[in-house]
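quick one if you have a minute, typing this from the bus. below you get a single protein, a line of residues and a line of whole numbers that encode the local backbone shape. could you go over both lines and see whether the tokens make sense for that sequence. anything you notice is useful, everything is just below.
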Amino acid sequence: MNQELVTKKFPVTDAVREAMAVSLRGAEELLPKEDWEQKLARSAATGVPLRIKLGLDPTAPDIHIGHTVVLNKMRQLQDLGHQVIFLIGDFTSMIGDPSGRNTTRPPLTAEQIKANAETYRAQADKILDPAKTELRYNSEWSDPLGARGMIQLAAKYTVARMMERDDFHKRFTEGRPISIHEFLYPLMQGYDSVALKSDLELGGTDQKFNLLMGRHLQQEYGQEPQCILTMPLLEGLDGVEKMSKSKGNYIGVTEEPNTMFAKVMSISDTLMWRWYTLLSFRSQAEIEKLKSEIDGGRNPRDAKVMLAKEITARFHDAAAAEGAEQDFVNRSKGGVPDDIPEVTLSGAPLGIAQLLKQAGLAPSTSEANRLIDGGGVRVDSSAVSDKGLKLEAGKYVVQVGKRKFARVTLG
């Protein structure tokens, strides 16, 4: 870029201030703020969009909505007219990101990376505007770098600086092994910023070291350094722990509409506003207006329904969101949804616990008995309290909890 443009001071207009507000919405940290404000001002004055980068390693096939927080931020900046770059780390996945790890991450195979990358791209297209998104793979420049290039890159950072990183420092002091290749990960992620000439890189709070590496390497290569924007990790359905599949407090982006809608409806009224800030495409002004209406006496359930429909429609469509709302209303009234699994079983008379297991409504008979003890099992709308109940041949609507149903034909 023209050095004169880099050093010139541009006026901060109302439009620039609004763009700053959008950038900061829900963000954990923006560094350095003054530099980003000037980049926005320069873009507004020259009409040249800024290059905004998000890199994701396709390390797992399952994505939950917590993973989409940074994608939502990308969409907000994309809507301001900037160029967003969705970078799939197919090369860095072969190293394995050591962020937050107390052991070496096992590398993935090329086949696993390819399959996961296709999933990530499909889900990103539900949030970003595909026509205005630059899709890149970091193997494009990392593979040609070769051994000579890798050595030259490694010479641009010291071991002492690398060991300042929390997870490396902790593992070293605890006597846990650190493989040499793990040092290459932040270097390669930083080099991505050099290759893409990014103005801003987004990431989770756990990525701060890697994002700052990008700034350092851009300066080493004579580029204007990028700014970094970190987004918080989303709290899960319980409102306490961070969203995680292992904790069971997540919403998968491929879950069916009725389940997705019902899970959003299950969050607390307090958590709802946090989710609005981080997940909704509504403007901050719209959210504040809605919050004011709730404070003035409007039912918070109305706001939660709006959020549930927005999220469900994003990953499915508007018709599916409408249907999921109706399904939720039916269930809340004790009604049976229209579309429930049909199961045919034999062995009448069959014990209720065994029936629940065979119908796929409980993973085991012991769990089925626990559900019965908890009052969570109904047969034809009547609660079951007797674990010794045996059902004769016939047709039954069996319900477990609020969301699991099956229409069972027992022979």
User: Anything to note?
Assistant: The chain is about 45% helix and 15% strand. The CA atoms of residues 290 and 303 lie 7 Å apart.
